[in-house]
Design the sequence.
C-alpha cells in the first residue's frame, strides 16, 4: 500500500479533506485517494499542484466544477499556500517559497527525504537477471539485461522492498559442446596467459562457423558423433571433456565476475543450468509417473492446447531435457530456497512464449506460486549497422568496448587535467563516466523498444546521456565549493521568488513519487526521463538566477536549492547503478 510520504502533498491533502468536511460533514473522506489524486498542472501559471474534483463528484452528487468552487471558498491562503486557483473542475495551489524550503529543501539537504518509507507492501521478491552463456564472449548486448536488472534491484530496494538478486548462467548444452569440440580437435592456438574468457568466446564463434561450413560434407556425420560423445561425458560428469569443461567453464565465470565487479553488480545466488540438469529430469519423470505429464511421439510433456500454448516438451525422445524442463524445476527451487513471494525473470522478449508455457505448466502441476512468477521482457540491442550474434562473431566485445570508452574519455576530456589531478582520479573518473554512459543508455529506453548502441552518441556531455547528468552534478558540486556553501547556515527560503526557482522546487518534490512509480511499473525510463528533465530545469534556473552576484540571503537560498538538486541527481543516478564523479 502506498504511504503518504510526500510532505507537501500531505499538507495539501489535509487542506482538501478539511474543506470537504466543512462543506459535507457527513461524508467519509478517503484520504489516501485524495492524496494520490493530487498532480501537477500543465504549466506553472496554473499553480504548482492541482486537485481534480471528479473524484468526489459521484459521492457528493454534484458537478466537479461546483465542488471545486465549494472547496476554494473553504481553503485560505497562508504561509504554506500563497494562492488557490480555480481551473474548471480543478482546485490548484501555488505554494510559498518558505513552504518548499521547510517541507522539501531542508529535508533533501539533511538526507531525511531519501529515507522515507514509500510503501507498506513489501513482498520478498527475487529478480533473476543476467543469464550469459559460458564459453561465449560477453558483448555490449548483454549489458541491457544486466543494467536493467541492476537498476530495478536498486529502485525496489530504495522503495523499501526485500529484493533477492540472482543470476542464471547457461553453462551446459550444445554451445558448450561446440566450443570443447573445437578446442580438442581443431585449435592450434596457444592458450593466452590472460583474457582466457574472452579468448574462449572467440573459439566458440570459430567453432560454430566451422561446423556450419562443414554441413553437407563427409565431415558432418563425424562432427555430429563427436558432439554427441562430448554431451554424453558432460551429462555423466566424467571423462576428458568433462575435465576440459570444468577448466574452461571457470575461465568464463572469471570473465563474468570481472564484468560484474566493473559494473558494481552483486548477486545473492548464482544458479547454474548444469546444476538443474539431473534434478529437472528427475522431477519431470516423477510428474509423468503421477499422470500429470503425457507421452507424445516418444517425448514427455504437457498438452497446453486448451490454453492455446501447444504442447510443452519437457523430456525429449532421447531422454534429455530442454530449457523449459530446467525452468520448471528452478522456479520451485527458488521459492523453496529463498521463501520469496514474487519471482521476476528479466529475459528478452523472444522468450515470451517459453515463459507462458513454463508458468502454465507450473500452474497445472499445482504449484501455487505460479501466479507469482512474472516475465519482464525487453527488446534487443543492435549496432548502427544491424543485429549482433555471438554465433556469427559479429559483436562488440564488452572488454574491448570498456577499454575503448575509457581511453576515449581520457583523451577527449580528462588528459588535460594531468598534473592537476592524480592519475588515480583520472582513471576512476574515466571508469565512472564510461559506466554511466553504458548504464544510462541501456535503461533510458522503454523495455519494449530496441536500443541502437552508438558509443560516440552515448558519451556526449549534452543531450539525454549519462555523462550529461553526471556533468550537471559535477558542475553543481564545483559551484558549491567555489561559492563557499555551508550546510549549517540558516537559510531564508522566502527570498526564492523567480519562476524558474519554483519550477525547480516543484520538480524536486516529485522525486520519491517517480522512484515509486518506476518500482510499480518495472520501468527504468520513468527515472531517466525525470532526471533528464531535472537537468534541463536546473540549467534554466542557473541561467536565469545569478548566484555569485546575488544578495547574501538570496545567494544562500540559491546555493541550498542547488545543493538539493545535486543530492537528488546523485540519488537518482544511484538508482540506476551510476556513480557521480565529484568533478569532470
Sequence:
Amino acid at each position: 500500500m502506498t504511504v503518504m510520504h510526500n510532505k507537501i502533498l500531505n499538507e495539501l491533502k489535509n487542506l482538501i479533506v478539511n474543506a470537504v468536511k466543512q462543506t459535507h460533514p457527513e461524508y467519509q473522506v478517503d484520504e489516501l485517494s485524495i492524496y494520490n489524486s493530487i498532480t501537477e498542472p500543465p504549466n506553472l501559471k496554473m499553480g504548482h499542484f492541482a486537485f481534480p474534483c471528479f473524484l468526489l463528484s459521484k459521492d457528493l452528487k454534484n458537478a466537479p466544477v461546483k465542488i471545486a468552487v465549494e472547496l476554494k471558498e473553504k481553503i485560505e491562503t497562508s504561509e504554506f499556500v500563497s494562492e488557490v486557483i480555480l481551473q474548471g473542475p480543478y482546485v490548484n495551489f501555488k505554494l510559498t517559497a518558505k513552504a518548499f524550503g521547510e517541507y522539501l529543501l531542508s529535508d533533501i539537504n539533511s538526507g531525511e527525504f531519501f529515507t522515507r518509507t514509500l510503501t507498506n507492501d513489501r513482498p520478498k521478491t527475487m529478480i533473476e537477471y543476467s543469464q550469459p552463456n559460458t564459453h561465449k564472449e560477453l558483448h555490449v548486448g548483454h549489458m541491457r539485461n544486466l543494467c536493467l536488472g541492476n537498476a530495478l534491484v536498486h529502485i525496489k530496494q530504495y522503495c523499501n522492498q526485500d529484493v533477492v538478486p540472482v543470476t542464471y548462467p547457461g553453462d551446459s548444452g550444445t554451445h558448450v559442446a561446440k566450443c570443447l569440440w573445437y578446442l580438442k580437435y581443431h585449435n592450434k592456438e596457444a592458450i593466452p596467459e590472460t583474457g582466457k574468457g574472452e579468448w574462449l568466446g572467440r573459439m566458440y564463434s570459430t567453432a560454430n562457423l566451422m561446423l556450419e561450413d562443414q554441413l553437407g560434407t563427409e565431415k558432418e556425420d563425424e562432427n555430429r558423433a563427436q558432439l554427441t560423445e562430448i554431451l554424453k561425458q558432460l551429462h555423466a560428469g566424467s571423462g576428458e571433456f568433462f575435465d576440459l569443461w570444468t577448466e574452461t567453464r571457470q575461465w568464463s565465470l572469471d570473465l563474468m565476475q570481472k564484468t560484474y565487479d566493473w559494473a558494481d553488480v552483486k548477486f545473492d545466488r548464482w544458479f547454474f543450468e548444469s546444476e538443474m540438469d539431473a534434478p529437472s529430469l528427475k522431477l519431470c519423470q516423477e510428474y509423468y509417473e503421477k499422470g500429470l505429464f503425457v507421452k507424445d511421439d516418444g517425448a514427455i510433456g504437457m498438452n497446453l492446447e486448451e490454453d492455446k500454448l501447444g504442447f510443452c516438451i519437457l523430456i525429449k525422445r532421447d531422454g534429455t531435457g530442454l530449457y523449459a524442463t530446467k525452468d520448471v524445476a528452478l522456479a520451485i527451487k527458488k521459492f523453496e530456497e529463498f521463501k520469496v513471494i514474487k519471482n521476476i525473470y528479466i529475459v528478452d522478449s523472444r522468450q515470451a512464449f517459453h515463459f507462458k508455457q513454463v508458468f502454465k505448466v507450473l500452474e497445472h502441476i499445482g504449484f501455487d506460486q505460479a501466479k507469482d512468477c512474472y516475465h519482464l521482457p525487453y527488446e534487443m540491442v543492435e549496432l548502427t549497422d544491424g543485429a549482433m550474434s555471438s554465433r556469427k562473431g559479429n559483436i562488440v566485445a564488452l572488454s574491448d568496448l570498456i577499454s575503448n570508452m575509457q581511453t576515449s574519455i581520457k583523451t577527449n576530456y580528462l588528459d588535460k587535467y594531468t598534473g592537476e589531478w592524480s592519475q588515480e582520479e583520472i582513471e576512476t573518473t574515466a571508469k565512472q563516466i564510461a559506466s554511466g554512459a553504458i548504464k544510462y543508455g541501456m535503461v533510458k529506453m522503454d523495455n519494449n523498444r530496441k536500443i541502437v548502441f552508438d558509443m560516440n552518441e552515448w558519451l556526449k556531455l549534452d543531450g539525454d546521456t549519462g555523462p550529461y547528468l553526471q556533468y550537471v552534478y559535477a558542475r553543481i558540486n564545483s559551484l558549491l565549493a567555489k561559492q563557499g556553501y555551508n550546510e549549517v547556515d540558516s537559510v531564508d527560503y522566502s527570498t526564492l521568488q523567480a519562476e524558474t526557482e519554483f519550477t525547480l522546487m516543484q520538480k524536486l518534490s516529485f522525486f520519491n513519487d517517480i522512484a515509486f512509480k518506476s518500482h510499480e511499473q518495472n520501468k527504468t525510463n520513468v527515472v531517466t526521463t525525470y532526471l533528464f528533465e531535472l537537468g534541463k530545469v536546473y540549467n534554466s534556473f542557473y541561467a536565469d538566477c545569478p548566484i555569485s552576484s546575488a544578495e547574501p540571503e538570496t545567494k544562500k537560498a540559491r546555493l541550498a536549492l542547488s545543493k538539493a538538486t545535486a543530492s537528488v541527481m546523485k540519488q537518482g543516478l544511484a538508482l540506476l547503478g551510476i556513480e557521480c564523479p565529484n568533478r569532470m
The radius of gyration is 29 Å. The CA atoms of residues 147 and 439 lie 6 Å apart. The longest strand covers residues 81-87. The chain has a mean pLDDT of 95.
